[in-house]
């Protein structure tokens, strides 16, 4: 039998490696930005076209490369960061595997320009699909400029898996924010399709956070600062009242590297115990500085997961540090052993009463009858004290005043049924079909001829609103109500860019925009179906939904908006509904084109026939 195992060609191996390293344009952005930081750059520019699909270019003023290094940088596992295996446990750089540029060059057109500070001329290299096309001497600025064009040009199947420009841009912005937050002393510039998205000058950490997430973020931040033998923790957490329903601004950095850790996140959430509403998530920007040899970064292709030597100790320190800061800045109550006893509330007044407290007297008017007009509707009572029924009631009340049960066992007082009570009694006997009952402020039970139907009020209302919004957006012309005073809402630059990208779609729902600035959106008209107080919540919910993975179809924006509006405005669990409201919701649900499920695929109701109910009790 002939041998069947063979070595893969380099260009095939590089494409396989690219599957791990380069998942989307944001992966390229992350690798190139980190390379620029490792090169000692103090100013980094990121230029994008078509959400990075057409162009991702990073320009830095770092130390640059020689002609030989420039050529070797595109070889697999060629790196200046490590020399032997032991160096993997003492890393102080972003990259170290030597896979990024080789993987990127295998699936794109790459053009590199670089020059050392002491050289007069630099080097230009052009590569297409791992193949070097040209290498020339050029005049260029100190540092490195690398342009990645036509990503996945030779793997069309991978390119087809990319999402819409809006979603891919969101992923790029996420990576850009993570790198920019980790290095506030470096200036960053981000341009997308020749539009400036971020211009972040060199600053401190607080200013960098505010520059990225808007000026409103400044008032939300509570500083964190703790130093121990095994870890130094700095950064900020947001005040509990600014917690979000979805995980928003949550950033962990270990030795200036962004990481994801559900274990450490649990420690922070635990520190907010008793301060957050159910389902809310705190925002935080926490920087952990630990000895490099106490962590293992080389456990995940994206290097966003880290293994710690002493996780339990870090958990306890992090939780205690956040809890202490919340108390120190009067966000949460703590024991204060340094308080001035002279400022305590005096309790001398208790001595005047010999330690006893007299209960307040409670007086009750036993003659009060709120239904006195209904008792004898034909003849108004002029003097309640002379009414026989009232005198009888008063006498019995005084007789048994010592026992509250007497109020409910008095058989002498039997007021005449009111007209309304009689009508209600008659109407309740007319039919048993179509009645509705609310259960636990969450479900609606409605009787039908074949049995009963149990409806989830929130999911049912989502379905009703979803179809209404979808029809308004796509079929009917939306109506808008003008605001007496335009409303200005603050967002981060990235969120404003996203809102602007769907501006036309939002206007088709009834929104009217007056102005877009770098930090705010001014709205002067809203759909008639919402109120002014709901604008911020609805737009924030829409942005969260837009950031999710949504199929790239021409209908997706409308569909996402309709779903988002429906989820934001639907009746919530815990809302008490009147009989009329219950009836209207049931009728509206079964008038929908698809009443069986919510916009998110959850069932809206469950029918129980009489036979199924009988089976329960006849087992």
TrEMBL record:
One of its GO terms (biological process) is mismatch repair. Residues 209-327 form the DNA mismatch repair protein S5 domain. Residues 435-577 form the MutL C-terminal dimerisation domain. Pfam families: DNA_mis_repair (PF01119), HATPase_c_3 (PF13589), MutL_C (PF08676). The keyword DNA repair applies. GO terms for molecular function: ATP binding; ATP hydrolysis activity; ATP-dependent DNA damage sensor activity; mismatched DNA binding. The keyword Chaperone does not apply. InterPro entries: DNA_mismatch_repair_CS, DNA_mismatch_repair_MutL, DNA_mismatch_S5_2-like, HATPase_C_sf, MutL/Mlh/PMS, MutL/Mlh/Pms-like, MutL_C, MutL_C_dimsub. One of its GO terms (cellular component) is mismatch repair complex. Keywords: DNA damage, DNA repair. Belongs to the DNA mismatch repair MutL/HexB family. This protein is involved in the repair of mismatches in DNA. It is required for dam-dependent methyl-directed DNA mismatch repair. May act as a 'molecular matchmaker', a protein that promotes the formation of a stable complex between two or more DNA-binding proteins in an ATP-dependent manner without itself being part of a final effector complex. This is DNA mismatch repair protein MutL. It comes from Tenacibaculum holothuriorum.
């Amino acid at each position: 039998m002939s041998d069947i195992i063979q070595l893969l060609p380099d260009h095939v191996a590089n494409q396989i490696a690219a599957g791990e390293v380069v998942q989307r344009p944001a992966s390229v952005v992350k690798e190139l930005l980190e390379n620029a930081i490792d090169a000692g750059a103090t100013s980094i520019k990121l230029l994008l076209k078509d959400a990075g699909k057409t162009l991702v270019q990073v320009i830095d003023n770092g130390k640059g490369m020689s002609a030989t290094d420039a050529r070797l940088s595109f070889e697999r596992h060629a790196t200046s960061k490590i020399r032997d295996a032991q160096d993997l446990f003492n890393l102080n750089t972003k990259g170290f595997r030597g896979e990024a540029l080789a993987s990127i060059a295998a699936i794109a057109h790459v053009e590199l320009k670089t020059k050392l500070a002491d050289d007069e001329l630099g080097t230009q290299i052009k590569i297409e699909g791992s193949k070097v096309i040209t290498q020339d001497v050029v005049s260029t600025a100190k540092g490195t400029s690398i342009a990645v064009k036509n990503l996945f040009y030779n793997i069309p199947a991978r390119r087809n898996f990319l999402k819409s420009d809006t979603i891919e841009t969101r992923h790029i912005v996420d990576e850009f924010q993570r790198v920019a937050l980790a290095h506030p002393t470096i200036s960053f510039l981000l341009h997308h399709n020749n539009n400036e998205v971020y211009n972040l000058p060199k600053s401190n950490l607080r200013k960098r956070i505010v520059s990225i997430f808007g000026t409103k973020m400044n008032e939300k931040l509570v500083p964190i600062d703790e130093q121990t033998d095994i870890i130094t923790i700095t950064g900020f957490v947001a005040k509990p009242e600014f917690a979000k329903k979805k995980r928003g601004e949550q950033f962990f950095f270990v030795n200036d590297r962004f990481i994801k850790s559900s274990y450490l996140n649990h420690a922070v959430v635990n520190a907010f115990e008793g301060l957050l509403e159910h389902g809310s998530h705190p925002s935080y920007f926490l920087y952990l500085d630990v000895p490099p040899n106490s962590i293992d970064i080389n456990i995940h292709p994206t290097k966003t997961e880290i293994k710690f030597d002493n996780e339990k100790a870090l958990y306890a320190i992090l939780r205690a540090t956040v809890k202490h800061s919340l108390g120190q800045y009067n966000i949460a109550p703590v024991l204060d052993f340094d308080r001035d006893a002279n400022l305590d509330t005096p309790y001398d007044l208790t001595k005047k009463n010999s330690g006893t407290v007299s209960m307040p007297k409670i007086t009750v008017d036993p003659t009060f009858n709120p239904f006195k007009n209904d008792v004898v509707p034909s003849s108004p009572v002029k003097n309640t004290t002379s009414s026989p029924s009232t005198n009888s009631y008063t006498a019995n009340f005084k007789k048994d005043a010592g026992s509250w049960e007497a109020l409910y066992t008095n058989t002498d007082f039997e007021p005449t049924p009111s007209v309304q009570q009689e009508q209600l009694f008659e109407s309740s006997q007319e039919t048993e079909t179509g009645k509705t009952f609310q259960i636990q402020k969450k479900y609606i039970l409605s009787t039908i001829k074949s049995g009963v139907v149990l409806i989830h009020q929130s999911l049912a209302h989502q379905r009703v609103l979803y179809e209404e919004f979808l029809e308004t957006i796509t079929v009917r012309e939306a109506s808008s109500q003008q605001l007496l005073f335009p409303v200005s809402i603050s967002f981060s630059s990235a969120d404003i860019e996203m809102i602007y990208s769907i501006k036309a779609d939002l206007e088709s729902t009834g929104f009217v925009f007056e102005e877009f600035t770098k930090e705010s959106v001014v709205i002067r008209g809203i759909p008639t179906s919402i109120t002014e107080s709901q604008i911020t919540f609805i737009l924030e919910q829409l942005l969260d939904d837009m950031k999710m993975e949504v199929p790239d179809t021409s209908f997706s924006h409308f569909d996402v908006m309709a779903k988002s509006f429906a989820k934001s405005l639907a009746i919530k669990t815990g809302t008490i509904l009147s009989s009329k409201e219950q009836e209207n919701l049931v009728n509206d649900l079964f008038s929908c084109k698809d009443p069986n499920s919510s916009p998110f695929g959850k069932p809206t109701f469950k029918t129980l026939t009489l036979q199924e109910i009988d089976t329960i009790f006849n087992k």
